Amino acid sequence: MLTGYDHLLFILGVIFFLYRLSHVALYVTMFSLGHSLTLLAGVLGHIRLDPYLIDALIGLSVVYKAIDNLDGFTTLFGSGIHQKTAVLVFGLFHGLGLATKLQSLDLSPDGLLPNLIAFNLGVELGQLLALTVLLGLMALWRRQENFQRQALLANAAILTAGLVLIGYQLTGFLVNPGA
Questions:
Q1: Model confidence over 66-87: pLDDT tens digits?
Q2: What's CA 164's distance to the chain center, in Å?
Q3: 36 with 94: CB under 8 angstroms?
Q4: What is d(CA 53, CA 85) in angstroms, rounded to the nearest whole number?
Q5: Which of 98, 97, 10, 2 is closest to 55 using CA atoms?
Q6: Do residues 14 and 66 make contact, with C-beta atoms less than 8 angstroms apart?
Q7: Which of 15-19, 106-110, 167-171 is the least confident region?
Q8: Could you give the C-alpha distances from 103 to 42, 97, 111, 115, 176, in angstroms and in order?
Q9: Closest C-alpha among 156, 159, 30 to residue 90
Q10: Residue partners of 43: CB distance under 8 A and separation at least 6
Q11: Residue 153: is it exposed, middle or buried by C-beta count within 10 angstroms (0-12/13-18/19+)?
């Protein structure tokens, strides 16, 4: 989980402007449902996508969330995108990305379902740990007088990181087709 920087960037973007714990819980649950569903379905159903393309979509999720946090969709289109649906859908992509990575390990079918469930629970526990740290840091940061100005720069940095992730993955796709 801690090496899943794309995952953590998306979660950071999701919680960036959520101030109530109930809202954080709702959005993280939507993400986890999507993530868990496609992780299990992808591995058990042998749904394997090109790892570079799915990781580019995961980078797109980071870009999406940063643009949303910057009110880009409202500015460009006059309204935003339904947040809970977007988080759920991007959770589906994140789960497929992990399923694709797991399938490259040539997993044994013996005990696959219980092992996948245990693995997924571990991922979710890692996410909760990371989320706890992120929420603590965000709470401290939000107390700073210049948080709103810094929030603009932070989301621009998240946007840039997402674009770099997309570029990196698309380059890998072009250089290593069919990997």
A1: 999 999 877 788 777 789 999 9
A2: 15
A3: no
A4: 21
A5: 97
A6: no
A7: 106-110
A8: 9, 10, 15, 13, 18
A9: 30
A10: 99, 102, 103, 107, 112, 116
A11: exposed
Residues near 35 by beta carbon (within 8 Å), at least 6 away in sequence: 91, 92, 94, 95, 98, 123
- Alpha-carbon torsion 104, 109, 115, 117, what sign? positive
Residues in Cβ contact with 104 at an 8 Å cutoff, skipping those fewer than 6 apart = 51
Token readout for 17 is 């402007």
Q: Taking a C-beta distance cutoff of 8 angstroms, is the pair 13, 73 a contact? A: no
- Phi, psi for 38 (deg, rounded to 5): -80, -25
Alpha helices (runs of H) in the chain, residue ranges in sequence order: 5-15, 21-44, 51-69, 72-77, 83-103, 112-142, 147-175
Rounded Cα–Cα distance for residues 63 and 165 (Å): 9
**How many Å from the N-terminal Cα to the C-terminal Cα in the chain?**
23
Are 46 and 106 in contact by the 8 Å Cβ rule? The answer is: no
Note the pLDDT tens digit of each residue in 128-156.
999 999 999 999 999 999 999 999 999 99
Longest dimension (CA), the chain: 56
Residue 104 in contact with residue 49, Cβ under 8 Å?
no
Residues 6 or more apart whose Cβ sits within 8 Å of residue 67: 73, 159
